[in-house]
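Appendix B, example 12.
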Amino acid sequence: MKTYHCIEVTTEDHVAVVALNRTKALNALNYELATEMTEVFHALSQDDNVWVVILKSNARIFSAGLDLKDALERGLVGSPKNMLQVPVHDKNIFECCHAIEECSKPVIAAVHGICVGAGLDMIASCDLRLCTQDATFSLREARIGIVADMGVLQRLPHIIGQAFTRQMAYTGRFFSAAEVERMGLVNMMYPDETAMMEGANKLAGEIKESAPLAVQNTKEVLNYSRYATVRDGIALAVHKNMLLLSTDDCREAMTAFAEKRSPRFRGA
């Protein structure tokens, strides 16, 4: 994989770690970071050697949100004429979270410190979320006079429900790790960053015990089913199984069951 300026990517034993690396800017989302995230997650989606992705931060916090200086320089705040061009000129600001959500591999967010605004958009696009006990979360846009427009208002209700989403969106305040754990935003909370990353790798290892093609197609069915009828969701799942039943991994699972041993999946 190519070298990036704002992101570090490492892959080992089928697990890719994507580290946000705009450390001096506290991973504030500028157009360069958004573009690199879009490219990285599109590439990981197509990489057969990657079965699970962990998204973390190399900075002292997870993310300070949108880079307002970059936004002003790029015309995200300006005349109506300029604003009408934002979806075209700044496509990747919005596309980066779609790339995370649509990545065929399950993505685990590992959050420490502050996660605000665009940072919350990023983790809402992930499949699973872990955090440290000192992490704090804020859907901040209403505090600066705008509406969150990178997908968090659409994704978050499916994670924590309408009531908690509205509370976060309307107040714009910071919520503690304990509060968001009760909401269901994070799956697990850890005492510190080291323990959290150990937990993230353990969770990735548990996911790897399942057939990777089955996991990837399960993610697709789950994403589709949020906006489809139950019948349509089932129809897609049946279609997926018509294909998965012919894979080497499915045959290996059945053979391993008969031989009373653990299956050895290859992603084929």
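The beta strands are 7-12, 15-20, 52-57, 107-111, 114-116, 128-132, 136-138, 175-176, 188-190. The radius of gyration is 19 Å.
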